[in-house]
Fold this protein.
Amino acid sequence: MTITLEQANTIIGAALDHGGKAGFNPLTVAVLDPGGAVVALARQDGSGFARPDVATGKAYGVLALGMTNRQIAARAADSPEFFTSVAALAGGKIFTVPGGVLVRSASGELLGAVGISGDASLNDEAAAVAGIEAAGLTAVTGAE
Amino acid sequence: MTITLEQANTIIGAALDHGGKAGFNPLTVAVLDPGGAVVALARQDGSGFARPDVATGKAYGVLALGMTNRQIAARAADSPEFFTSVAALAGGKIFTVPGGVLVRSASGELLGAVGISGDASLNDEAAAVAGIEAAGLTAVTGAE
Amino acid sequence: MTITLEQANTIIGAALDHGGKAGFNPLTVAVLDPGGAVVALARQDGSGFARPDVATGKAYGVLALGMTNRQIAARAADSPEFFTSVAALAGGKIFTVPGGVLVRSASGELLGAVGISGDASLNDEAAAVAGIEAAGLTAVTGAE
Amino acid sequence: MTITLEQANTIIGAALDHGGKAGFNPLTVAVLDPGGAVVALARQDGSGFARPDVATGKAYGVLALGMTNRQIAARAADSPEFFTSVAALAGGKIFTVPGGVLVRSASGELLGAVGISGDASLNDEAAAVAGIEAAGLTAVTGAE
């Protein structure tokens, strides 16, 4: 199973709506399938030209390792060299800061991931969670 | 000036609508700003995982060289080695087949480009043109 | 809008003049458009052969993230892994040290960036600011 | 010995002047030292964002192989696979089409190369030759 384009568009719309209401900076939202390929991406006017790469990388990294950003951060704290190596392997598409969120179905199946870049990392993540929940799906951030 | 996210979404919606009515294979549509960065991208369910790269590359190439796919194809026919070199310089993000379409404003200003991949190249291009025109913008394909 | 070649040449001339009068090492100056492509570059005799890449990278990084070197440095101090990832994504074209300066018009519009390499980072930056101001434009360094 | 920044600036000024008088498209001119590093580069307003890479690549290729574009073209005609391999080795910075011109001193010493992109290849080359000769140096194109 994989996230559908319709679900991805719902997520993007709701995430950007969340950011707009909260007064966030312009955001870029990327939705990836479980294989790490982009399903949909939207960059708001004024969001910098590197943001698509960062947003995609945030989602790619959590999928690539099957870990949340917080788990990756803990692993990097435990072994900075591990992070250096996997970051190089992935061409930089691995992040420790929040903003890459795994997406699961109601039954727990992995459907993909959402990455957001543009504001503070926790705000990016909050927008991703709002988008995922608006699509009736489960957001996995690793936050307790 | 650059294409806005709202214009990009209109283009994507109308391009996919065109493909659906025409019975095309699932499509991936990428909309890029004049500097070659993605503004919005949508991959229909069933469109392969390399399609985002191909769609993005089609749009990138026409922007990078300021030439239509047909002009690039004529240049490549005249000098295959020229194409080999520029394709390597651009990391493969240059195509000679149709499906990358420059977008201009009513006053002729370059706003970006649309790239589509998924069906026959001329069908990809037709969907891009339909999308661009639905947004009230001018599509430049180089076709006579 | 984008910086013009004429403005870029004025910036380069004034930056090198500043460096000469201040007794700086030979400098390399790169002027980039808002999309991160080079408009003009000059490397003074005796400036090492990697300086064009460094000067270009300093300007590229502040444009790519829409942040000053000081903001990037603060972000990297907060999360070294964030910097590792974005530096890899950008192929190294992101710097935390001063010397990449955003260029805005009198009305505040982003026109591009200037990157200088060759002397101490704060001297590189001072030369960039001198160049930008000589062109009647606004330099954004993030320094208080 | 290497070309100086002053010589490079003279070359660029005269090459762009030649293009302007001849009614060429906007040009990008790159001047490289014998080691293949950029000394100076200028991109006229309206010249596409990939032109700096193409102009630099044209100059880089003739230096990298120590051959003119025409010699490289003859070699590529003799063995297309040779060209494919060296183009890949150089990351695309090798061209068979005219527009990369070796620069020699009056005594025949290699000082660098000039690459121009933006108009027809022979026009690009003519502008490079005009620039090099304006600096009192010898242009080597391989044309008979």
Notes: The radius of gyration of chain A is 14 Å. Residues 5-138 of chain A form a domain with the Beta-Lactamase fold (CATH 3.30.450.150). Residues 55 and 85 of chain A are 20 Å apart (CA to CA). The interface with chain B takes residues 2, 4-5, 8-9, 33, 35-45, 49-50, 52 of chain A (CB under 8 Å).
